[in-house]
Write a structure and sequence with these properties.
Mean pLDDT: 93
InterPro entries: 6-hairpin_glycosidase_sf (IPR008928), 6hp_glycosidase-like_sf (IPR012341), Alpha_rhamnosid (IPR016007), Bac_rhamnosid6H (IPR035396), Bac_rhamnosid_C (IPR035398), Bac_rhamnosid_N (IPR013737), Ig-like_fold (IPR013783), Rhamnosid_concanavalin (IPR008902)
GO molecular function, one term: hydrolase activity
Catalytic activity: Hydrolysis of terminal non-reducing alpha-L-rhamnose residues in alpha-L-rhamnosides
Helix content: 10-25%
CATH architecture of the largest domain: Alpha/alpha barrel
Protein name: alpha-L-rhamnosidase
Keywords: Hydrolase, Signal
CATH topology of the largest domain: Glycosyltransferase
Low-confidence stretches: 1-28, 33-42
Radius of gyration: 29 Å
Length: 925
């Protein structure tokens, strides 16, 4: 039989393109071409590597679709590609089912050279046609390519600025007019704008990114953004404009602690515009002393913590357009370039990802109003206002209200969280800030000149431009509410790096917040690029002796040598490998982890193999009761040798697996030998014959059980003590802090007590995730007792207490888990817990091979389970051991295409190829 196909092409860079071909009535195999982007950029411009990796997905309405071979063509022009002239690379036919991360193997591209590619695959269902995959461009990768480009700025404050503590520094505006003398073929603009930039061409903003570029330790590296502005330029006169904000670069508002908080200087920029003309000639426009600049614009102050002040009376109409009168501007100054290496940015910029309308306006007796957005969110507020010139509107942001209805501000510490807008008085004025963001649900508005309505305000939700790839819901409203709260907290704290909170004077990328949370997040968000970037931040912050900080990038100079915090580099590396199947993430981080482990062993392991150094312990353990929690300060360190030694063993085990994966055979025996000695020491030092570890704390026993540190003969007794701690001592509640909660739900479930895990997941009394919901939370709190705690450390938007809850939702309740032996969801482990407390669980995750879906529900005495396995992958299905009336149907949409007889072993396990299936059975337990 001859097969033709229909194709859906999606370039997951900064845009998408659709193509279609003739559909065959018998077989429909789609190919989705994309870039996994574990190595590449968020767009195809300025790739920092010579050998980017190419990926595609197969899909179709047939079951059991498997790739047999592929062929890739890469050409220097679209015309050559269409003519199948692969002047850059022809992979020829490759017998392989690999469709993820195939490295380009052709000629090395020159700077700014484009490469166009397409792929053709053979499957067990037939051959595809050629499918075009778009293009990529080689970036400016060498320092010498930038050396003739001058850094410009102004290394001083303006006379109206204040650079004392809580400084106010106005934004800097730059412009340059030039003439393109010929017809333009292409134009790529490369910009490094520090701390933050907004780019304009001929009077229009370029791109939809905000708060760009992503933050880094600018002493280590600075990020280049690249834009194709061909369509925005014209032959003849053109104008470039850039606004620079302060971001994480100019941080003198925090100069009361210069020993702790880094400052990198005044804002600065470097820019190159590469133009290729139709006749083949080229021209480069660069930053130099001919650029004009001013700081006397409308943005009078901008600061991540304190907000933005905007004076519309100072607006410069057409400032970035051709012909603007720049006579009052002055020549830009040459300034010292930053110390860090210049690198193409490999993760997404932030953008406005969602708009929210407020739900209520609360008038105040003094004439002010308080706006309720109905959701604790991260971003800013757009206002529509009409009034007289010089009238001032002040916007003050907070997460919650005091009992008297005023803003609760104490938990912001010294962050002012306030925007100011001064009207120009010229009719309806619409404004939103550029170089700040806030964590808020409520906004106090002073000086609003006209009668406010809900339509005068729009909340702009801002986070990294990454897709939500997971869906999860159940029949239980508490679980659903917690999941929704988790989404808002996770999304809002993606800020070019994972930060702890968006509202107070901190907003730091604490390593201890994300070791397991990042794993759960990966089911919900396509977050691989931000975590690859964060691992680079961690490596660059590592000291030459191996020490890793608590915060990376190390904006705060905290190097406490805390095992469970710094060890996040191990957890995140492991997570990325599991969820994407990308071996390179291990190769990139292996030496840094090995150096750190050697550093910790050499400095802190005693003669008995106990790792003696821990800084925080089980951070944020809940007080025994909510009455005792009132006003309690949670900033209490409880260092624990048990925790640090347990993690030492756990990380040695992971490194042994890493060594095997990347062929470091010599290291395996060393890791395993040391791990054995640490395990013996752990049992000898911390095991009590009464059947528990350490002080019989929930976290002590959890770590011992989950990390495999308990001997077989003691395991049941230790688990019984864990269960007793939950059921009796704590009356059906958890008592773990940040460390223990990472292993809680899976340990209970793996040991057969999913019912107890369900109780913890659905509790609405203190302490629990549901308690937060019960008390009005729309995000996840920093503290279990966040409604009554001392406000000095009491964020209402954190992720660290999620622990392994989201992992448990997907892997245990829904049964969507990547096989560690075949990572990246090449093989899926589908083993749901069909808990009696739930009527249904419906979940999906868009993985590297496509969407995995699991939807089980109760229909009378039956359980009906609909599953979807993506093409070119497979799954192992596990059913309860005691069932009857098993039926397995192969589906095509809502149609049954065949009834299958699974070859099920005694444990209810069988394998399925890709496709859609309906399984029904009666659970006899």
């Amino acid at each position: 039989m001859k097969y033709t196909s229909s194709f859906l092409l999606l370039i997951l860079f900064s845009w998408h393109t659709l193509f279609s071909c003739t559909e065959n009535e018998s077989v429909n195999i789609d190919i989705q071409v994309y870039d996994l982007k574990v190595e590449g950029l968020t767009n195809p411009l300025g790739l920092p590597v010579d050998h980017p990796r190419l990926s595609w997905k197969l899909s179709g309405d047939e079951n059991d679709i498997r790739q047999v071979s592929y062929r890739i063509l890469v050409a220097s022009t679209e015309e050559n590609l269409k003519a199948e002239i692969a002047d850059l690379w022809d992979s020829n036919d490759v017998l392989s089912d690999r469709s993820i991360g195939v490295s380009y193997g052709g000629n090395t591209l020159s700077n700014n050279q484009k490469a166009y590619w397409k792929v053709k695959v053979t499957t067990n269902k037939g051959d595809s046609e050629w499918v075009q995959g778009g293009f990529w461009t080689k970036g400016i990768t060498n320092y010498n390519d930038w050396k003739s480009t001058r850094w410009i700025g102004m290394d001083k404050a303006s006379e109206w600025d204040d650079i004392s503590t809580f400084s106010k520094l106005s934004a800097r505006y730059f412009r340059k007019e030039f003439e393109a003398k010929k017809q333009i073929k292409s134009a790529n603009l490369h910009i490094i704008g520090l701390g933050l930039y907004e780019l304009h061409v001929n009077g229009e903003k370029v791109g939809d990114q905000v708060l760009a570029p992503v933050p880094t330790d600018y002493h280590q590296n600075v990020k280049i953004n690249v834009f194709d502005i061909t369509s925005q330029l014209a032959q003849g006169k053109n104008a470039l404009g850039v606004i620079l904000g302060n971001g994480r670069f100019f941080t003198m508002r925090q100069n009361y602690k210069p020993y702790k908080i880094k400052n990198f200087g005044f804002p600065k920029m470097a820019l190159q515009l590469h133009i290729e003309y139709v006749d083949g000639s080229k021209e480069v426009i660069k930053t130099d002393e001919s650029w004009k600049m001013t700081a006397d614009g409308p943005i009078r102050s901008n600061n991540e913590y304190d907000g933005e002040d905007y004076d519309a009376r100072k607006e410069m109409l057409g400032w970035s357009a051709i012909g603007f009168d720049e006579s009052s501007w002055f020549n830009a100054e040459y300034v010292q370039e930053p110390e860090g290496d210049f690198q193409a940015q490999t993760n997404e910029n932030m953008k406005v990802m969602m708009e929210l309308k407020p739900i209520k306006i609360y008038p105040q007796e003094n004439g002010d109003i308080i706006l309720d957005m109905g959701q604790n969110m991260t971003g800013w507020l757009q206002i529509k206002v009409q009034g007289n010139k010089g009238q001032e509107v002040k916007l003050k942001f907070a997460e919650s209200l005091n009992e008297n209805g005023t803003l609760f501000l104490t938990n912001l510490r010294d962050a002012k969280a306030q925007d100011t807008y001064i009207l120009n008085g010229e009719g309806l004025e619409i404004w939103e800030p550029r170089f700040t963001y806030h964590g808020f649900r409520y906004v106090e508005i002073k000086g609003f000149p006209n009668e406010p309505t809900l339509d005068d305000f729009v909340g702009k939700m801002i986070y990294d431009d990454i897709q939500t790839v997971g869906h999860f819901e159940t029949s239980d409203p508490t679980i659903n509410a917690v999941y929704n709260n988790a989404w808002w907290s996770i999304a809002g704290n993606y800020k070019g790096m994972p930060v702890d909170c968006p509202q107070r004077n901190e907003r730091q990328p604490w390593l201890g917040d994300r070791p397991t949370s990042s794993y759960g997040e990966s089911f919900m968000f396509d977050n691989s690029r931000i975590y690859v970037k964060w691992l680079e931040d961690i490596r660059l912050s590592q000291k030459s002796d191996g020490s890793i900080p608590d915060v990376a990038p190390a904006f705060w100079r905290y190097y406490s040598d805390n095992m469970s915090w710094a060890g996040t580099i191990v957890n995140v590396t492991d997570m990325l490998f599991r969820q994407t199947g990308d071996q390179k993430v291990i190769e990139e981080n292996y030496e840094a982890i090995k150096l750190w482990l050697e550093y910790m062993k050499s400095n802190y392991m005693d003669d008995a193999y106990i790792l003696t150094k821990d800084s925080y312990g089980d951070w944020c353990v809940p007080p025994p009761s909510i009455e005792e929690a009132v006003g309690q300060n949670a900033d209490v360190k409880r260092p624990s040798k048990l925790i640090s030694t347990a993690y030492h063993y756990y990380y040695l085990q992971i490194m042994s697996a890493f060594a095997k994966i990347i062929g470091r055979e010599d290291d395996i025996a060393n890791f395993q030998e040391l791990a054995g000695q640490v395990k013996n020491a752990f049992q000898h030092s911390f095991y009590n014959e009464a059947g528990y570890f350490g002080e019989n704390k929930m976290t002590d026993n959890l770590l011992a059980l989950h990390f495999g540190l308990v001997n077989d003969e003691h395991r049941d007794k230790v688990f019984d003590n864990l269960v007793n701690s939950i059921e009796v001592t704590h009356k059906g509640h958890l008592s773990t802090g940040v460390v223990g909660v990472q292993w809680l739900m899976r340990t209970l479930t793996d040991r057969g007590r999913v019912d107890l895990a369900m109780k913890l997941a659905t509790n609405r009394t203190y302490p629990s995730w549901g308690y937060m919901v019960e008390h009005g939370a729309t995000t996840i709190w920093e503290l279990w007792h966040g409604n009554v705690a001392n406000p000095s450390m009491n964020s209402q938007n954190h992720v660290m207490l999620l622990g392994d809850l989201i992992v448990w939702y997907y892997e245990n309740l829904a049964g969507i888990k990547s096989d560690p032996e075949n990572p990246g969801f090449k093989h899926v482990i589908m083993k749901p817990s069909f808990v009696k407390e739930l009527d249904y669980v419906k979940a999906s995750h868009d993985g590297p091979f496509g969407q995995i879906a699991s939807h089980w529900k109760r229909e009378g005495v039956k359980i009906v389970w609909d599953i979807k396995i993506p093409a070119n992958s497979s799954a192992t299905i596990t059913l309860p051991k005691s069932i009857s009336n098993l039926q397995l149907l192969g589906m095509k949409g809502d149609m049954v295409v065949e009834e299958l007889k699974p070859s099920k072993n005694a444990n209810g396990v069988f394998d399925l190829r890709s496709g859609s299936y309906k399984i029904s059975f009666q659970d006899l337990d």
